[in-house]
Every structure is written in C-alpha cells, then in structure tokens.
C-alpha cells in the first residue's frame, strides 16, 4: 500500500487542528481512550462541544494557550492509502516549525477561513509551500457554515488565490469548500454543499496521483556510510551504504564517484530488505563496486554521462530560522548538504522576498528571523548538487550555527543567474 | 514506488546509519520490548554483513518479567552486540535516590535517574530510543533527533527545525541527543514488520494463561514485585501483553491471539491505544509523559 505524507498549513484559527481531528474521527481512526480524554478536557474547560483540536495540540503550553506551537504527527490509513499528517502551527513566530512539517510532504492543505479569506499567513505558507516544492496543494475554504454555504464566497476566495498564485511556482492546486467542525465535504459529501461538484477532501487525498513526483532520471547516491566487516567470512566485503537521492541504480551500471571522477561498475546491491537488482529513489541501499576505489562518506555516486553540478560558489533561496541572531554575511556557518558537512559563508544577499507583495527588495543586506531571500554563498569544499526544483534531496541544505548548534537556515539551491 | 512498510524500514535504517556516522558514542536502548526488538533488527540490517557498531543498553528496574530478560540475553547473543545494563537497584544502593515506597509504588519514574547517570558514565552522545509518535501526544511532537541539554532535559518549546531528513546533531560535551528511528511507525506497522521479516519476540506478547487481578480497570500480573490487595481477587486468565515495561505498571489484555496473524487482526480492530490499555503510568495527569520527558525520561 502507498503512503501519502501531507501537512495542514494556514493562518491561526483557520481550522487546521480541527480538520485533522475531523479526518481522524470520521475515518474511525480515533481510539476510545483518546476520545474520552479530549471529551473530559473539553468538559473541564466548559467547551460545549468536543474540541477535536485537542487531538493534536498535545503539549501543556499549547493547551493552556489554545494554539499549536509545534508540528504534531498523526497516522491513519484507509483501504486505499496510508497517511502521515503533519499538523503545522499557524503563528508567524513558529514558521520554522511549519517549515519542518512541510519540508518533505507530498501534499499541503492550506486552510482558509471563509469569513476572512486570504490573509498574510495564507500567502506566507503558500509561498513557503511553493519554495519547498510541495508537489500538490489543496486550498480548503473552511467554515463554510459561517458564510451560509455560499458559492459566491468560495469562488471569490478561489479567484483571489489564483491571482496571487500566478506568481508562484505551484504545480497542482485544488480548491475545496469544507466545514471542518461538522465534517462537511471532509470524509463524506455534504447536503449543504450540493452546488459543489468536486471530490471530498478524503477522496482527493486517496486519489491524488503522486507516482511521478520522484526524480527517476538523474541517478544520485550520496555515500552515507562505508560498510567493511572486520570478520573473516566477509573479508573482502566493502559496501557503500546510503539512500538513493534520484534516478535508478542497476546491477551492471557504469558509475562515477565524485569528487575523484573515477569510474567503475555496480556488481551488486544489498539492502535492508535483501539483495536488489535495482535501487530506486528513497531506497536504502548498499552498492558493491567492481573496483576497490577510495570512497568516503560525503562522496556522490552518479552516472558518468549524467553528473550533478559541482561548485563552491552557489546561489540559493534561504529561509532564516534563528530567532537569536540574523544572518550575518561573511560569518562562517556549518553547512550540511546530503551526507556532506562543510563550512560556508553567505557572501551576498541578492534580495529579500517581501512575503505579501512578492516584491524583491534588493536593498536588503541581511535576513532576520523568518525572512526569506536569495543569497550567494561560498563553501570550503565543492558541493555536488542539482537545482532544488529538479531534486529536493540534492538541492537542499541547512546552515548550522557553529557556536550555539542551532539550525539557523534552510536553503534551496538554484542555478546561478548568468 | 515503495510500499509503506518498506518506506518506513528504509527511513529508519537511514537514520541509524546517519547517527553511527556522525556521533562518537551512540548507544541503543534495548529492553526486549517489541519496539526495541524491531529497532535492533533494523540496526542489524543497516550494517550487515558487518556488526552493529555500537552497544545496546537496558535500564533495568529489577522488576521484570523473567521471560523478557531471558529473551533480551538471547537476542543480544544472537545479534552479536554488547549489552550494558544500567541498574535502578544499583542507583538506589549508591544513594542516588530512595526506592519507591507506598501502596502503589513503581520504579518506573526512577529509571530516569539511572538512565541519565548511565549516559554520563559512558559519555554517550546519542541514545536511540524505540518510541513512536503514535503512542502518545507529547511524543507526537518530538523530533527524530531530539536535543537534550546537560541536565538531560527536553524543551518542547525550543526544538530545532528538522527539514527534509537532513539531521543536525551538533552539541557540546555533556549534552546529548535522543534518536527516534521509529518515529513514523504505528503499532500495526511494528506487527506487520515482525510478521514479514520473521522477528522473534518474548513469549508474553502471545496469548497465555496467567494469574492476574483487576486494578484501575486493567489486568495486572501477579509477580514477586506486585501483589493483589485483599479486595482484588486473583484469577487465572488467558491474556497477552501489548506493551512490555516495568512489571509493576504494565498491564495485560484479555486475548486469545496466539499467532502473528491473530495479533495483527486484533491490533487492527483495537479501539483503545496500547498505552491507554496497558500503562498505569500514563494515567497520572493530562501531561504525564510530557512532564517526565522534560526531566529526561525515555
Ligand atoms: N464554525 C466553524 N468553526 C470552526 C470550523 N473549523 C474550525 N472551527 C473553529 O475555529 C477555531 C480554531 O480552530 P483550530 O482547529 O484550533 O485552528 P488552527 O489554529 O488552524 O489549528 C476553533 O474554535 C474551532 O472550533 C468550521 O468549519 N466551522
Ligand atoms: Mg492548530
């Protein structure tokens, strides 16, 4: 059975946590003790209905403040698919937690309150989903019960979003009217929304086509770990373990190792699931090679006729996530890209992106907490990378503050503008 | 396209290898419970045909089910890994804390002290735990690489961002990380893996006859560490365990499921979570697990 990872994003109080509660509840994925627990807590607080958001807002501070602070992960399955949900916080100060939840999903649900329509956080989160390359977006116009189930309101919000989204690079956007509170058009069709001809949310989640989202063309294998059993019976075994970051590796393939540029042939592929004839994107694999080359963690295995870019001077979109200090150009950070750790400094901020207007502010010199911009950076060792749009694994990196250890930025590599 | 179970296996194996590559002194917690058994088997597969390049550690309350301790010792021998035992009894004897006393005494919370002392003693910088996010609402919030300060504390409000499966394990001496390779597994995934990959488990997970008594709505097993009160009649029941922990706070469930197929069917149809059905320690308060984790619990 297939697995779909999705995140719920959007502004505070637009109904993300309630929607997840509703999905779990209506798909019978809530256990009795969990339900008893949230019923008891709801009652203790004097809420006159069962507050489904308590299913994901599990931290003390979240319940005290009635908000989502960090991502909660929930799991459910229907006969068609397995789902991993990341319920993301809506507040601007928790944007880095939203990015954490949305960075590796197949689909993002953007909740919009039908009464208020598109707000700043709707734009910010949609922009982030676009930058993060989330393949599928669903705009759920929620709380339709509070606008008399009006098709006019739904259409107006859809038009407004489409106008904004025209300037983003979103591949697949679907619009759905729902009411998370009562479950209208979430798992089952709603008598209140007979004018709507599209699918229910769950139907869409079960059927959205994701098979072509992986890059199966450009073979990339960042070496993670070298397996050399120091035991007599496997004396000559030397395997290069990692996870396929793109393309397909087959026994018999000619491969090239970077940075050395040496070439050899794949003689076997081991995996935690036994030997393989071919390893595909996301497979954990151990490559066995014909020649005894010097290969270490951080090296990149590819095909001789299809190599990643190689550079020390790079361009990237950077999301600054450190609340303690802004990005300081020329300061040295630790950079982690695939399995390689080296050092980097940002040599120039090319522009800061205004999140509401999408205007490029070229006068910017730094990036503060939660700001996004395009930068030039320089690394102490070359990176072997692809454009983020082409490959999310070989196109992404993080910057780490060498003193505090904080993960201070998420970066998406782009081909330099010429 | 990967099957969901295979996707989980490959994700976990990748996390385990990453830690082995980046940390100086990792250790894997191993109790003999199903999650830690699955985690250890994944570690074996991550490095095969080489040995697992780190030891395993059991934090032993001394209040065990004997079947589980026998299983633990057999498993580490079969997989050829080194076992370290952190003993709660030894911590008590050394005066690190008083033993739990009183009518409902359990050593479960005392494990934290022994765990943190053992981590400090061996200078472990990465400690693998078998916790899953579907188990409990505080765990649902935790990162795969979960930072612990020099007091072993988790701060849920300042977790580091964690993107794309690029993990940041940077820390100062004295700080460490808890690593949760099974974060995205559910109870059902664990059982499906056990079946598909033919993983041995302690016998108490399968239906058997046992002397039990009813307490707080759960079936507690009679043992040298736990006896029934006068108003708690002891009966012989067909039961099995859904989770395995300290014998004083882990309950059995009524079940006749004695094969993996039956257990999987039973798990798929279960209407109560595994912790809700079997753990006395989780009933303490609305945020029992969060509070324990903040002070360094598993
Ligand atoms: N009337 C109505 N209220 C809703 C609906 N969905 C959510 N709410 C309410 O909106 C408030 C915020 O919901 P919550 O799920 O916490 O929002 P989040 O901040 O996006 O996670 C809560 O009081 C919900 O009960 C809906 O469809 N209709
Ligand atoms: Mg919320």
Structural features, described:
- Chain A has 418 residues and is of the alpha+beta class.
- Chain A folds into three domains: 206 residues, Rossmann fold, CATH 3.40.50.300; 83 residues, Translation factors (Elongation Factor Tu (Ef-tu), domain 3, Beta Barrel); 106 residues, Translation factors (Elongation Factor Tu (Ef-tu), domain 3).
- Chain A contains seven helices and 22 strands.
- Chain A is globular.
- The model of chain A has no long low-confidence stretch (mean pLDDT 92).
- With 298 residues, chain B is of the alpha/beta class.
- Chain B folds into two domains: 195 residues, HUPs (Rossmann fold); 82 residues, no CATH class.
- Chain B is built from nine helices and ten strands.
- In chain B, strands 3-2-1-4-6-5 form a six-stranded mixed beta sheet, sandwiched between helices. Chain B has a four-stranded antiparallel beta barrel with strand order 7-8-10-9.
- In chain B, helix 1 crosses helix 2 and helix 6 runs antiparallel to helix 7.
- At the A-B interface, helix 2, helix 3, strand 2, helix 4 and strand 9 of A face helix 1 and helix 2 of B.
- Guanosine-5'-diphosphate binds next to helix 1 of chain A.
């Amino acid at each position: 059975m297939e697995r779909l990872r999705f995140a719920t994003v959007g502004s505070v109080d637009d109904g993300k946590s309630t929607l997840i509660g509703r999905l779990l509840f209506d798909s019978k994925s809530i256990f009795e003790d969990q339900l008893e627990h949230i019923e008891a807590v709801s009652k203790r607080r004097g809420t006159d209905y069962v507050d489904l958001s308590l299913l994901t807002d599990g931290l003390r501070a979240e319940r005290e403040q009635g908000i989502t602070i960090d991502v909660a992960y929930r799991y459910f399955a229907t006969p068609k698919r397995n789902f991993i949900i990341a319920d993301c916080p809506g507040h601007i100060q928790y944007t880095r937690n939203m990015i954490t939840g949305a960075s590796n999903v197949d689909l993002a649900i953007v909740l919009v309150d039908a009464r208020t329509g598109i707000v700043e956080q709707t734009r910010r989160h949609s922009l982030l989903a676009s930058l993060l390359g989330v393949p599928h977006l669903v705009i759920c116009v929620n709380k339709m019960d509070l606008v008399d189930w009006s098709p006019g309101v739904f259409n107006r919000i859809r038009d407004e979003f489409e106008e904004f989204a025209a300037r983003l690079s979103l591949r697949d956007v679907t619009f759905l009217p729902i009411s998370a509170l009562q479950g209208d058009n979430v798992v089952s069709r709603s008598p209140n929304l007979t004018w709507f001809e599209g699918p229910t949310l769950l139907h869409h989640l079960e059927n959205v086509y994701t098979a072509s989202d992986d890059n199966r063309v450009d073979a990339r294998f960042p070496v993670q770990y070298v397996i050399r059993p120091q035991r007599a019976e496997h004396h000559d075994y030397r395997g290069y373990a990692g996870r396929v970051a793109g393309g397909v590796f087959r026994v018999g393939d000619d491969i090239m190792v970077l940075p050395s540029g040496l070439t050899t042939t794949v003689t076997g592929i081991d995996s935690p699931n036994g030997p393989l004839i071919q390893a595909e994107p996301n497979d954990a694999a151990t490559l066995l090679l014909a020649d005894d080359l010097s290969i270490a963690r951080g090296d990149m295995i590819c095909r001789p006729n299809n190599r990643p870019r190689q550079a020390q001077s790079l361009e990237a979109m950077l999301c600054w996530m450190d609340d303690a200090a802004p990005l300081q150009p020329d300061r040295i950070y630790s950079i982690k890209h695939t399995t390689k750790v080296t050092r980097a400094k940002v040599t120039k901020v090319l522009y800061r992106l205004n999140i509401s207007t999408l205007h490029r502010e070229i006068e910017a010199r730094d990036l503060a907490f939660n700001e996004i911009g395009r930068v030039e950076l320089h690394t102490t060792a070359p990176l072997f990378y692809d454009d983020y749009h082409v490959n999310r694994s070989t196109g992404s990196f993080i910057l780490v503050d060498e003193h505090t250890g904080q993960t201070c930025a998420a970066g998406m590599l782009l081909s330099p503008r010429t | 396209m990967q099957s969901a179970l295979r996707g989980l296996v490959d994700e976990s194996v990748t996390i385990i290898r990453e830690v082995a590559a980046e940390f100086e002194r990792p250790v894997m917690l191993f109790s003999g419970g199903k999650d830690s058994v699955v985690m250890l088997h994944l570690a074996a597969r991550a490095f095969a045909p080489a040995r697992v390049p780190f030891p395993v550690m059991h934090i032993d309350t001394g209040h065990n089910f004997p079947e589980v301790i026998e299983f633990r010792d057999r498993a580490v021998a079969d997989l050829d890994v080194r076992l370290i035992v952190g003993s709660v009894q030894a911590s008590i004897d050394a005066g690190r804390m008083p033993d739990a006393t009183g009518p409902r005494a359990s050593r479960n919370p005392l494990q934290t002290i022994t765990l943190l002392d053992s981590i400090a003693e061996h200078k472990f910088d990465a400690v693998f735990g078998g916790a899953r996010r579907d188990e409990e609402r505080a765990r649902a919030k935790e990162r795969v690489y979960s930072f612990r300060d020099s007091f072993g504390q988790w701060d849920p409000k300042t977790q580091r961002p964690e993107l794309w499966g690029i993990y940041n394990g940077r820390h100062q001496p004295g700080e460490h990380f808890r690593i949760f390779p099974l974060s995205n597994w559910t109870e059902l995934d664990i059982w499906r893996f056990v079946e598909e990959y033919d993983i041995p488990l302690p016998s108490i997970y399968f239906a058997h006859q046992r002397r039990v008594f009813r307490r707080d709505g759960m079936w507690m097993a009679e043992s040298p560490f736990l006896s029934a009160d006068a108003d708690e009649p002891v009966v012989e029941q067909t039961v099995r365990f859904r989770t395995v922990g300290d014998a004083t706070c882990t309950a059995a469930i009524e079940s006749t499921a004695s094969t993996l197929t039956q257990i999987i069917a039973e798990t798929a149809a279960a209407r109560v979570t595994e912790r809700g059905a079997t753990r006395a320690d989780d009933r303490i308060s609305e945020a029992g697990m969060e509070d324990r984790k903040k002070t360094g619990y598993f």
